[in-house]
Amino acid sequence: MEQEFVRHLSADSRYFRFMGSLRELPKKKLKLFTEIDYQRHMAFVATIQSEGKELEIGTARYAATDKPGTCEFAIVIDDAWQGSGVGGQLMYSLETAAREQGFKTMEGIVLAGNYKMLRFSRQLGFRCYHQPGEADTVRLELTL
Ligand SMILES: CC(C)(COP(=O)(O)OP(=O)(O)OC[C@H]1O[C@@H](n2cnc3c(N)ncnc32)[C@H](O)[C@@H]1OP(=O)(O)O)[C@@H](O)C(=O)NCCC(=O)NCCS
């Protein structure tokens, strides 16, 4: 289901999510994404029923970083569902889960040209930081 979801994303959404031009998840990444421990690595997926089949339409995940109390998040929504509130719902669940696991800070790295994500994350309360020497990316940070 996860692989089908990634294959179905537009090239732009895949590029913004993975910061590269991958068409599908390499085996190792697919395993990492789907075999989580629900504590240091958590993921939520949004699904719909379509023609008797469960289809993934969005996913948000976090993973603990080396910095104590800090996790890094990522999110992507199927193109046809973007702008319909799915992303907001997934982020709400993800932030709640991270807080419950004792994380204090959630951070993320996004491409500086990803205006939709920058707008979305600002509305969710994330602060944006431009990092010296990293003109292509912006760091997002939320106190949980
Ligand atoms: C950026 C992205 C995740 C947003 O997801 P989405 O499902 O389209 O977002 P939503 O529909 O939940 O949000 C839509 C609107 O509600 C706002 N919103 C959602 N939840 C909110 C909340 N809890 N509080 C305030 N505002 C909220 C959003 O900011 C946005 O505002 P707008 O209508 O003024 O634009 C999505 O466009 C996407 O998948 N992009 C490609 C992948 C990507 O760039 N990932 C980021 C790198 S990890």
Brief summary:
The protein is α+β, with helices and mostly antiparallel strands and 144 residues long. It has five helices and six strands. It has a single domain (2-104), classed as Gcn5-related N-acetyltransferase (GNAT) (Aminopeptidase), CATH 3.40.630.
Bound molecules: coenzyme A
Number of domains: 1
- CATH top level is Alpha Beta
Encode the helix/strand succession as letters: HHHEEEHEHEE
Order of strands in the sheet with the most strands?
1-2-3-4-6-5
Strand segment tally: 6
Low-confidence stretches: none
> What is the CATH homology-level superfamily?
Gcn5-related N-acetyltransferase (GNAT)
> What general form does the structure show?
globular
CA distance, first residue to last residue: 30 Å
Share in β-strands: 25-35%
Looking at the structure, the CATH topology is Aminopeptidase
The pLDDT mean sits at: 96
Our count of helices gives 5
Query: What is the gyration radius calculated from CA atoms?
Result: 15 Å
For the record, the CATH architecture stands as 3-Layer(aba) Sandwich
Main sheet: strands, sense, barrel: 6 strands, mixed
Derived from helix and strand composition plus strand pairing, the structural class reads alpha+beta
Provide the helix percentage: 25-40%
Which keywords apply here?
144 residues, 6 strands, six-stranded mixed β-sheet, globular, single chain, alpha+beta, Aminopeptidase, binds coenzyme A
